[in-house]
Amino acid sequence: MSVFSIWKRTLTAENTVVEGVRIDENEQCVVVSVRPDARRRQRCGRCGRPAPWFDAGRGRRRWRDLDHGVMRVFLEADAPRVDCRRHGVTVTAVPWARHGAGHTYAFDQQAAWMASECSKSATAQLMRTSWRTVGAIVERVVADRDRAVDRLAGLTRIGIDEISHRKGQKYMTVVVDHETAKVVWMADGHGKDVLDRFFDDLGKQRTARLTHISADGAAWIAQVLAERAAGAVRVMDPFHVIAWATDALDVERRASWNRARRQAADPDTARALKDSRFALWKNEADLTDRQAAKLTWIAATDPRLHRAWRLKEALRAVFTLAKTRPTAALSALDRWIGWARRCRIDGFVDLQRRIRRHHQAIRAALTTGMSNGLIESTNTKTRLIIRRGFGFHTADAIIALVMLTLASDRPTLPGRQPATE
């Protein structure tokens, strides 16, 4: 096997002819002279269709390839221009790199894989490039991968949420597909205008095919869904409903603590109420012996606070019941609303009003079993991406990495098959 054939196999470049290999002493790199084979010559760099020759362009140019040992490797070739019937005069396509890119497919693929596994800074250091170049490669790989894919096609059950990505109330809006467990849309900002952009991209016909939309109780989400997706069932996330009850319980705990401070002759009572937070928050089945004893003491000392805890646990039991008996859970929810309405605990009286405002969405959660658990998992992974990169200057950089790793199959290393589960 000739040296040129070995280099061709090493470069993993198809439809490419290796003409020569040399060392550039000035740049301290390996330069491999290549050209497209006869089947790939004189093609438009944008559409890939054959086109008549126009001129020689700006002469020879180089593309960065994967390093060999400690030496950088560049592919060098002529870059003539053709006159495409559709795109006009443009540089010819090359089989080893994307149009307009300064790196080969293999270099882009390895950089994208590393960016999905570690920080941009580490990727840039290993690949011997800048972190801005890594960001450009990620965007290029995502755009190329998604060019032939319509992520908004076939959506029926989606989840909508917001995630904070920076101090100062900086949010991003994310939409996931419950059927594929993939991110389908993400944008900088949050609020009615941003969510309207998603439905503009989705279009009226595909919006009409939506059957269920899970979300939290944000007013701007409910308003947009009522206006743009009235035919879909809005599903309230159970986690947020339980969180409302926990917040109402904590308000009552602080009120009980303040009453005990003012009225109790023994300061130990107030201190014990102050230290009861975790016993009240925790699920009843997960209580330790010490926490169970604390609740028994609260039942004897402060019946009002204990009643608030029972209300919280009863609401949790409604959603637990829905996993096996959805119809019974609907009746249990109505009974809970009646109990909370008569409980004379301000926090839970307000909570039952809030639940009645979202009554249909909560009933849908009980009957369908849907939640925002998938999208909360996506938010956790997004925060990990942000933490791994020690923060990002713009939301666009975060969105590009999220779409690279969470919107489709994760990138693979060049020359390797995707891992099978």
TrEMBL record:
Residues 158-399 form the Transposase IS204/IS1001/IS1096/IS1165 DDE domain. It comes from the Bacteria. Pfam families: DDE_Tnp_ISL3 (PF01610), HTH_Tnp_ISL3 (PF13542), Zn_ribbon_ISL3 (PF14690). InterPro entries: Transpos_ISL3 (IPR047951), Transposase_DDE (IPR002560), Transposase_HTH (IPR032877), Transposase_Znf (IPR029261). Residues 41-87 form the Transposase IS204/IS1001/IS1096/IS1165 zinc-finger domain. Coiled coil: none annotated. This is ISL3 family transposase. It comes from Streptomyces gibsoniae.
